[in-house]
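Database export, one record per block. Field names are fixed; values are copied verbatim from the stored entry.
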Amino acid sequence: MQEFSLIIDGEKVAAHQYFDVINPADKSVVARCPQASLEQLNTAIAAAKAAFPAWSALSYAERRDHLLQLADALEANLERLTTLLTQEQGKPIHGFANLGAGFELNIALDWIRKTASMTLPPEVIQDNDAAHIAIHRKALGVVGSITPWNYPLLIGIWHMIPALITGNTVVIKPSEMTPLTTLYFGALANDILPKGVLNIVPGAAEIGGAMSAHKDIAKIIFTGSTPTGKTIMKNAADNLKRLTLELGGNDAGIVLADADIDAVAGKIFATAFINNGQTCAALKRLYVHEDVHDALCAAMTNIANSMKTGNGLDADTDFGPLQNEKQLNIVKELAQDAKDNGANFLCGGEVLDETGYFYPITLVNNIQDGVRLVDEEQFGPILPIIKFTDVETAIASANRSSVGLGGSVWSSDIENAQRIGARLECGTVWINNHAMLQPDAPFGGVKGSGFGVAFGEAGLKEFTSIQTMQTAKS
């Protein structure tokens, strides 16, 4: 069994306590993971604070060189990391549409290189005989990152790389469910980044709570549930800590009467069940016009019935298990509530394999707003399909949610779809697609889905403060 260590001040550090990381496909122990103590967290934050002046003083080009070396090291270790990711998270090596562990790691690799190429040069707002005025962007200091278990390394990259390229140092707490790929990545970084620039401290909720309240952490970036985001916000209030919170979603898709079902059924299926539905921006509620409802249900059911759910290490597996037992129980509970409310299960809905945390791809229709499966984020492989007759009703249903991460409109009339999409209360709207992210397109939520954005220039700016420099000329 592989040994893992905390990463603090450029060193591999042992812990006083360890915990098991479970393979969700067979409930076996993948590895024993070190659990950071509060004292070790404080040491990591102190190391990051000490490393900040020298790291932030480097040019973008100098920091970029370090990060591109880190990308090369990740690329050289892709095979080992892919297997490790499947073991701790459950997603298949390849999986349906090649959207498995290999996909996550290759996207992470691309994200490092593209984000490292970005800069925030001074913005000149006046240059005349009276004065030269420019806006400069300055690094904040120590950034605390708290990541979830659904995309362990990729979301870590989304947090770490923009923080580092803009001159901040980082302390990251990966989810205790899936800390191993992040620790492996940190061990690679030890040979490339200066001491203290990146520190990794796995642990339970108390570590995250201490980070969000710590006076020497200038910013917290968190991806996870809305209740936890609210707790972080309260903890951060005492020192007015900067926050980026990407919280829960319950993304709605609206399929209009003129949608080409043959063209969109496969894309809707893929974007609803990407990562087994365990994706914040996955399509989670599907509103379908009555004219195309039956055809879309039939097409998606045919796709679902061709899928294999199993151990992600098996080459022919399309979808793996849910990552943990708690999430499996949430999906089972929502399915049972839908059954109790008269919903029709087109496929799935019954656990057939209890060797791991498996739940089959499940499609549900004859269901309405007000049923828990529609109103609550399922974060698993079960999709409610709601029939509508009037598009105004569908828009109102999509917007009645307390969260607003993403949404989509599916139609052959692009201009009409865009008009409808503009009325959806969410941070990102896709037309004839869903859950497609890229490093240069800002992404974030509204309402209970949090605030702040990731990716692109707007995302980089989240890791900086503004300093306006005004130079008099007369």
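Remark 1: The mean pLDDT is 97.
Remark 2: The radius of gyration is 23 Å.
End of record.
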